[in-house]
Design a protein that fits this description.
By secondary structure, the chain is of the alpha/beta class. It is built from ten helices and eight strands. An eight-stranded parallel β-barrel has the order 1-2-3-4-5-6-7-8, surrounded by five helices. The protein is globular, with a radius of gyration of 17 Å.
Length: about 260
């Protein structure tokens, strides 16, 4: 059985002090909770503060992006070894906002996934269609293309630690969200696509849903057989909302 995973993407919010407070509130609110893996992904400037708060807890520290090279003349970028040195155990890759505003490509996401796996970071690779692609009936083609690119060149066994987040772009930060049934259909498509490269290992890959996830709608996604958790944006900035989402995932993952 795949363990549920709930990841918080704090995006470009909060300076160091409030980030530390939020992390502390989440740690206290989830104390003693078993059966769900939680990852907090603060902005890069707060990684060290949040790392100290999470030390000695089961909650993992994650970053929001990284470069695929280990070092070099890449002004403003962070390398995999830098993230590991900061205490990171996971990293979000290919988020739609990175693709839209910073020109990240499918090929670049694949390079980042390979680099993350090589440095024992859990890659949370994001895929999803834009509104115009959905309306054109291209959802499946877009998602399959992005998934294939994300895993291209990766060792099949190494992909067992991969996490894929299905985030329909039209649902991110809009208050709109896919139905549980539709999200599960796409998640099943993602798993079939992963099986092309990873074979049976695809059954161990966790697939998350993301896009306006709240305590009120998380249950609709967690009850789906192919969905293993959520990548949470806006609601993760509210400690009580995020704690409620994580607790719901724990209940859903209980036998």
């Amino acid at each position: 059985m795949r363990a549920p995973l709930i990841a918080a993407n704090w995006k470009m919010h909060m300076t160091r002090e409030p980030a530390g407070r939020l992390a502390g509130d989440i740690v206290r609110g989830l104390a003693g909770l078993d059966g769900v893996q939680v990852v907090l992904c603060p902005p890069a400037t707060a990684l060290d503060v949040v790392a100290r708060v999470l030390a000695g807890t089961p909650i993992l520290l994650g970053a929001q992006t990284m470069h695929w090279e280990t070092q070099g003349a890449y002004t403003g970028e962070l390398s995999p070894p830098m993230l590991v040195d900061a205490g990171c155990r996971a990293v979000i890759l290919g988020h739609s906002e990175r693709r839209r505003y910073f020109g990240e490509t499918d090929d670049g996401v694949g390079k980042k996934v390979r680099a993350a796996l090589a440095h024992r970071l859990v890659p949370i690779a994001c895929v999803g269609e834009r509104l115009e692609e959905r309306e054109a009936g291209s959802t499946d083609a877009v998602v399959v293309r992005q998934v294939r690119a994300a895993v291209a060149g990766s060792d099949a066994e190494a992909l067992s630690s991969l996490v894929v987040a299905y985030e329909p772009v039209w649902a991110i930060g809009t208050g709109r969200h896919a139905t549980g049934r539709e999200a599960d259909r796409v998640a099943a498509l993602i798993r079939r696509t992963l099986a092309e490269s990873a074979g049976p290992v695809a059954g161990r890959v966790r697939i998350l849903y993301g896009g306006s996830v709240t305590p009120g709608n998380i249950g609709e996604f967690l009850e789906q057989p192919e969905i293993d958790g959520a990548l949470v944006g806006g609601a993760s900035l509210d400690a009580q909302a995020f704690i409620a989402i994580a607790r719901a995932a724990c209940r859903a993952g209980s036998p």
